[in-house]
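Workshop exercise sheet. Pairs work together: one partner reads the sequence aloud, the other fills in the structure field after running the prediction. Swap roles for the next sheet.
Pair: D.N. / O.F.
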Amino acid sequence: MKQLLTDIQARLELKVPQLRYIDEDWGQLEYFSPTPPTKWPCALIDLSVPATWSNFGKLGQLGLVQIKLRIADLRISNTSNKAPQFQKDAGFSIFELIELVHKAIHGYSGHSSYSRLIRTTGPSRIKRDDGVRIYEVIYTSEVCDVSATPVLPTVVARPEVIIYRTPRPGSGLLTEDGFSIMTEDGIVIIPESAEPIGVLTTEDGQPLVTEAGEIITTEAASTPQPITTEDNNPLLTEGGQNILNEN
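Structure field:
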């Protein structure tokens, strides 16, 4: 409701600079006569919800709001048929003001919390026993009120672990079928105790190689190797299988 009221006030100030006083209608013209605390001409805004609210879930509600605009001025000019034309123009200027207000407000919506304002009745004259002239115009708008909707706490989601079906190289964690376990960003998950595969070297820093010229890594060194004779021939079992050095 506050959003709607302040938007209408700002809209009238921008589009109808002839208005010298724009405020919520809290009885300025009724309770302070004959010297109301306004300047002339003025526009007073009153909001009310004559109908019931309807619910749309999560404690949010919709209501048809009635916007009552009262445009008023202090009549000090004669508008009779015998009056000079400049006095008539000054006296009838309130009707031009009502038209400017309608152009600024009808169809206006300055926020997503309420629908376009549509005129339903008016302008209608409110008669008084003093020199103040008041014309009332009523607009309606559907307002969405979510002030009672609970605010859920924000939870920062941790990256999900995705098992890729394509084998990937590396020393990360693996599934039972040999696939790398990776984060959503594609980073291989490596346990803190994992160590990179190294290369066995001689005392002078030269890599150890097999007879076939392949570099012997720490991973290969931990694999059981066949036992050979002095002339490098593998020892075989009676079944013809290599005898491995389990140590």
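Discussion prompt: The chain has a mean pLDDT of 79. What would you look at next?
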